[in-house]
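Exercise: predict the fold of this chain.
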Amino acid sequence: MSVHTIERILWEFGDEPARGKAFLEDPDGYLARFPLTEEEFRMVRTMDVRALGDHGVSHVRRKMTWVAWRGDTQ
């Protein structure tokens, strides 16, 4: 279980938009290169922000990714 790994994945999405696009096109393939538990894999794949928060993932990383993918939340 690694919060750091999940935060690194989310950072990649914001740091390089092409990575986020690659994830959206093939989430299973993209995540296969990371050492995630089944639950972590599911949380990231479905972008379950509540579960990610409960897991300890930074609010900033979750918000950054959510806004980048879904647009402004207001």
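Check your answer against the key: The chain has a mean pLDDT of 86.
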